[in-house]
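Format notes (please read before filing issues)

Several people have asked whether sequences and structure tokens are stored in separate files. They are not. Every record keeps both together, in the order shown below: the sequence lines, then the token lines. Line labels are part of the format and must not be stripped during preprocessing.
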Amino acid sequence: MSAVNSCNNVWNGAGRRIHMNEVGTRDGLQMEQAFVPTEDKIAMVNALSEAGLSKIEVTAFVSPKAIPALRDGEIVMREIVRRPGTIYTALVPNVRGAERAIDAQTDELNLVMSVSETHNLCNLRMQRSQSFEALRQVIATAQQAATPVNVSLSCCFGCPMEGDVAEAEVLAWVQRFADLGVQGITLCDTTGMAYPSQVHSMVQAFKARWPQMGLTLHFHNTRGMALANVLASIAAGADRFDASIGGLGGCPYAPGASGNACTEEIVHALQLMGYDTGTDLARIVAAARSLPALIGHETPSQIVKAGARWDRHQPPADFSEIKERALAKV
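Then the structure lines:
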């Protein structure tokens, strides 16, 4: 299929399956000042499971000093109710984190490094080569336990400190991890710099080179282009996306950065276009509406604020009088 035909077809989902991965319970909550009680985290994951998400990034197995908001990772991962068909994953930074995650029966390990040297130093306090060697050991640990690994590569579409990141550079890092036998790669728009034509090119190049490799796209809505970038990805052959309930999240090294692509907004749009996300939007929205009470502030979600397109509302209380006055003028 030509690129032109592919782009034309993106507007008609025709039942095509799109997999939604929820990252709000990790990527979102780790950015919050308020500690969400353990039982509420468990209830949130359970609610998202019932909504039919393909994958849920439940927590992170990191030092409590590094991310105190997720210090209860083991308890949450052990006590959630697991729905058949949903993958329960967690972020792990090192071998010790991997061992903890495996012991807690995590379905998949998510590893992170940046393709930008500056961002990697700021975010992980390591050079890229150092991160790669550390993650190589984590991958070996996971493989010994027969636990699948996904690698999330940050700043694939630009770095706020270095600027553009060459597509060839991104693909070279993908190759390094493909050579280690990982099951999946996530291309991350960590700082909200991606734009649709760039995304389309990157996804096409990835799919041509690694047609059997699991590919996920992770967009932020910092500059209001998350949905446009999702559609560009679909046009290029992608079918799996990270998103965050309520639009929670952000990046401390991107000035003005807003949260991740919002789960309910992306699902709402894709369903209207005829895609099958396998999810119950009403359940997702209900979960999103519970967030402000847990985190102490409103979320960016426009679906929570405005409702779905198909929601209907009562006319004004004086509608009968308005109608009568209009008829009287005829």
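For reference, the curators noted about this record: The chain is about 45% helix and 15% strand. Residues 1-7 have pLDDT under 50 and may be disordered.
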